[in-house]
Amino acid sequence: MTELLTTEEKEALTAKLRELAMLMRPVLKPGDIRRLREDMTDENVAHTYVRDGFGIHPVILAVDTAITVCRRVSPDRNMVAALLLREAVHGGALSAEKVKDNWGPDVADTVSRLNKALSLYERHATVESENFRRLLLTFAEDIRVIILMIAGRLALMEAINHHPDEKRVAQVAYESGYLYAPLAHRLGLYSIKSRLEDLSLKYTDRATFTSIARKLNETKVKRDAYIADFIAPIKAKLEAEGLKFDIKGRTKSIYSIWNKIKKQKTDVDHIYDLFAIRIIIDAPIEREKPECWLAYSIVTDMYRPNPARMKDWISIPKTNGYESLHITVYGPDDRWVEVQIRTRRMDEVAEKGLAAHWRYKGVKPEQGLDMWMKNVRDILETADTGPMELMKNLKMDVYNKEVFVFTPKGDLYRLPQGATVLDFAFNIHTGLGCKCTGGKVNGRNCRINYKLESGDTVDIMTSNTQLPKRDWLNFVVTSKARNKIRAEIKEQESSNAELGKELLQRRFKNRKIEISETILTRLIKKLGYKTATEFFSKLGEESLDVNSVVDSYIEMSEKPAEAEKAVSAEEFVMQTPKEEQSSEILEIGSADGIVKGLNYKLARCCNPIYGDDVFGFISSEGVVKIHRSDCPNSQNIKERYPYRLIKVRWSGKFGGQMAATLQIIGNDDIGIVTNISAIISREKNSSLRNISINSHDGLFQGYVIVGTGSTEALNALIKKIKTVKGVKEVKRVDK
Question: Are 254 and 231 within 8 A, CB to CB?
Answer without folding.
Answer: no
